[in-house]
């Protein structure tokens, strides 16, 4: 399986061996590891990455979807340089104009946002959103969907893997990490995404103890919601006064400028953003209804003329972060949004994604390899079913061995994708790049026939 991969990537292997001695597993995030070792990249530009052996790849990972403008876009470089020139420093440690402008921009784009706070990652954003929601509602139990990922902390590392169900067909409540307190399993209701009947049964049984319902509107960025599922969830949570949180860390600025809420027309109480928003720098944001957001305000009811509270204590919801709203990040993010606001940008990238998906399916078909794509907009995944024609929303039920063989064949041909993961496109994935991808893809498919 890995024969040619190993031949081509000696430098990556050497770096990985060095890394492993000082970094557990040789990776700074578990998700970045794959067997036999992850590629160690040296540089990137536009749609491309070059590894430490000098192999060139068309990048479809794009830092897990964060790089909507591709690698090293000149407008981002210029914006960060300008921020440095204007402020003379990377960070002031005080409020500054860029974070105000960014907050205004988000409020204008996202229908579910009256106010916004910034964080340094998507993880922090969903964590803060959950704290706001549960505090506002005054209940600690949360409901999340089976298989939905919201970041690597205890409260949401319950039932991250999709699959297991109990004897009644409800998702099993699993601990998906060592070191997870039983508290979180006991205080998490796990919902089956897109299965309204079972979801409603669970909500009816548990609504009194629920402080929040959180979900990825598009699971893992590529399993779209039944619009009806989102609508009914919205109706139910409104009826019982439970804050509904959309984790739009992946879908924000991917499914258009207003994310999934804009695309599907369902408005949450709170929204978590990350990834694309930072223009390639670490970022997160939480926005939502004023009535909920302002419980973290250190001023009384948002009134700046009172002396205010300390920001600590029982009467205020604590939120802090040394680097929240970092000027370089805000500058990079605003530059990204300005490019994305140009007419036709999303349409073009989505057209290329569609063209690529169609082309891949045609090639698979032509060579008699079972497989189809799933997704919405600029992110999709490739499912290789065990049974031809069998369509499932559960990737785990697919033929993992075949998919892995294909992914390594693609790496050898020069398509970078973390094996078994999604494809994301950027504005740098032009028609030429996508056509080149299809040629390489066909070579890869021929190899696994
Ligand atoms: N929520 C979703 C939907 C995500 O995709 C991710 C990251 N993959 C996160 C939260 C966590 O974001 P971060 O990695 O920036 O902490």
UniProtKB/TrEMBL annotation:
Cofactor(s) needed for function: pyridoxal 5'-phosphate
Keywords annotated in UniProt: Pyridoxal phosphate
PROSITE patterns cross-referenced by the UniProt entry: AA_TRANSFER_CLASS_3
Stored InterPro entries: Aminotrans_3, Aminotrans_3_PPA_site, PyrdxlP-dep_Trfase, PyrdxlP-dep_Trfase_major, PyrdxlP-dep_Trfase_small
Pfam families according to UniProt: Aminotran_3
Single GO term (MF): pyridoxal phosphate binding
Similarity comment: Belongs to the class-III pyridoxal-phosphate-dependent aminotransferase family.
Designated name of the protein: Glutamate-1-semialdehyde 2,1-aminomutase
Organism: Desmospora activa DSM 45169
